[in-house]
């Protein structure tokens, strides 16, 4: 019997690229501030934090973490950040918060989904995700979608359940959140991005998801040749 492996795919920073959603987040945050001078100061601080993150000069987990840290330092409240995030997700996949796909993503997932089950696993809420996936041309290739997962700990039960049915490859851009829990359970992992992560021990890694298409194809082919336990 042929084994059917599973790819567990992260969303933001892995399948969905671009700074459109983040700019919408900063804009929604600034819109809550009444004083124009403070609005400009907070916006500038947040965008500067994103630029520093992109330049690799900070140790933030991701660009959202960079914005959050900068905003809190400017005296923005947690509830304001929460409202801004939800407002920005309402715009996800629209011209106000566009997302970009890694080169060749739609064709790759259409191909690989013939041999592997593709599952979305994200900490993001469901708001706007379907629209974003459709704008990327990949909505129909995902067999299941798991939102508000609560990674890293929330990833473990999902991967454990999938491993009981066959091999799993977790794919994401943050080792601690997207991959480490799967690695601890014995799943394979694919780390996306060029940021230094000394503690990471992925099965494969690439500067972009597109750079991992061939290694993932090889992994899927090798798993399908395995004899089921």
From TrEMBL:
Taxonomic path: Bacteria, Bacillati, Actinomycetota, Actinomycetes, Micrococcales
SUPFAM superfamilies: HAD-like
UniProt xrefs under InterPro entries: HAD-like_sf, HAD_sf
Entry protein name: HAD family hydrolase
Domain of life: Bacteria
């Amino acid at each position: 019997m042929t084994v059917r492996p599973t790819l567990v795919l992260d969303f933001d920073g892995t399948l969905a690229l671009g700074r459109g959603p983040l700019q919408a987040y900063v804009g929604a945050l600034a819109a809550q501030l009444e004083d124009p001078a403070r609005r400009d100061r907070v916006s500038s601080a947040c965008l500067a934090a994103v630029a520093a993150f992109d330049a690799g000069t900070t140790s933030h987990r991701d660009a959202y973490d960079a914005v959050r840290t900068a905003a809190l330092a400017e005296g923005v409240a947690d509830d304001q950040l929460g409202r801004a995030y939800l407002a920005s997700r309402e715009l996800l996949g629209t011209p106000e918060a566009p997302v970009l796909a890694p080169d060749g993503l739609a064709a790759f997932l259409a191909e690989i989904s013939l041999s592997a089950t593709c599952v979305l696993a994200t900490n993001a809420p469901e708001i706007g995700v379907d629209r974003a996936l459709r704008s990327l041309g990949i909505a129909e290739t995902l067999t299941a979608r798991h939102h508000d997962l609560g990674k890293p700990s929330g990833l473990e039960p999902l991967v454990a359940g999938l491993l009981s049915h066959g091999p799993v490859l977790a794919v994401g851009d943050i080792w601690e959140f997207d991959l480490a829990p799967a690695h601890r359970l014995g799943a394979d992992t694919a780390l996306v991005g060029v940021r230094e992560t000394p503690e990471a021990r992925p099965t494969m890694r690439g500067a972009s998801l597109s750079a991992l298409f061939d290694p993932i194809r090889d992994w899927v082919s090798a798993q399908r040749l395995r004899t089921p336990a």
